[in-house]
Specification:
The chain is an alpha/beta fold. The protein folds into 3 domains: 144 residues, Rossmann fold; 60 residues, Histone, subunit A (Orthogonal Bundle), CATH 1.10.20; 73 residues, Helix Hairpins (Orthogonal Bundle), CATH 1.10.287. It is 54% helix and 9% strand. The chain contains 14 helices and 6 strands. The protein has a 6-stranded parallel sheet with strand order 3-2-4-1-5-6, sandwiched between helices.
Length: 299
């Protein structure tokens, strides 16, 4: 890494990406950009499994402790963060390691996203009502724009809602709108991709162990603090680990069931992450944690 270089480490939750990225950052004189939908928040520490200050070992991390839980963010936030850290790397003659548990954000950086039209309150209210019956809404959109909707699952509420917003705001099917407003990639330099893969049974055991550690470290107290300070309204309060703990606090189940619920839902998330990575990224070097570490560090 003599001139500016960058690489990305992807993989499911609890796969070992964080610790490996810190080792790589030391070896290759790099900063780190974390692409994670919970670590970006301040005060959400235990449940996000973000690296604590001592675990960062002095490495500059972007995308961690950036917003408060009641502040909004979307994929464009990570686009701004990438531009910021890319400029900093060039100025400081540093390299960059991107750590992505949320593959959607990395895909958006690589491929770009089209600017979406402004949505007024009347459209928001109408769509909120339409989304009460997602199946019918999906079917209607499929008639309007079958080409676009073939790429969207009938269970993907977020993208179904966005498709409706585009159609109502522009009076054009999403396919036509995106043809007129093509996306522009944010990452333009070469970005080698490395994915850490695990057998599902082994990964589930890692997730179970991490969940147990979270509970020992004070997960329940952290969620109590977040609820008292921010209420249950912010989107982040619906994240895995938080929603189950809130159910526990509501008396829906005991602590052992809480651990099992978080473990099961996190394992399901990991499966979705692996499926997404396999289907959305090409030219990826895949291997278990030791293989990827040996390859990159030359151990």
């Amino acid at each position: 890494m003599n001139s500016f270089r960058q690489l990305a480490i992807i993989g499911p939750t609890a796969s070992g990406k964080t610790a490996l990225s810190v080792k790589l950052a030391h070896r290759f004189n790099a900063h780190i950009l974390s692409l994670d939908s919970l670590s970006i928040y301040k005060e959400i520490d235990i449940v996000s499994a973000k690296p604590m200050l001592h675990e960062r070992e002095g490495i500059v991390h972007y995308g961690i402790d950036y917003l408060y839980p009641d502040e909004h963010f979307d994929v464009t936030t990570f686009m701004h963060l990438y531009r910021d850290i890319h400029a900093r790397c060039l100025h400081e003659k540093k390299n960059l390691i991107i750590v992505g548990g949320t593959g959607f954000y990395l895909k958006a950086l690589l491929e770009g996203i089209s600017n979406l039209p402004a949505i007024d309150s009347s459209i928001e209210m109408y769509i909120a009502e339409k989304m009460q019956n997602r199946a019918n809404t999906y079917a209607e959109l499929h008639q309007i724009d079958p080409k676009y909707m073939e790429k969207i699952s009938s269970s993907d509420s977020y993208r179904i809602q966005k498709a409706w917003e585009i159609y109502l705001a522009t009076k054009e099917p999403p396919t036509t709108y995106f043809e007129k407003n093509p996306p522009k990639p944010v990452i333009t330099d070469p970005l080698p991709l490395y994915e850490i893969v695990w057998e599902r049974s082994v990964l589930r055991e890692r997730i179970s162990q991490r969940t147990a550690s979270m509970l020992q470290e004070g997960l329940i107290d952290e969620i109590c603090m977040l609820e008292a300070k921010y209420t249950r309204a912010p989107n982040c309060m619906k994240a895995i680990g938080i929603k189950e703990t809130l159910d526990y606090l509501d008396g829906k189940y005991d602590k052992e069931t809480l651990k099992e619920k978080i473990t099961t839902n996190t394992a399901r998330l990991a499966k979705r992450q692996m499926t997404f990575n396999r289907s959305q990224f090409q030219n990826v070097t895949r291997g278990n944690l030791k293989e990827i570490e040996s390859l990159l560090l030359g151990i």
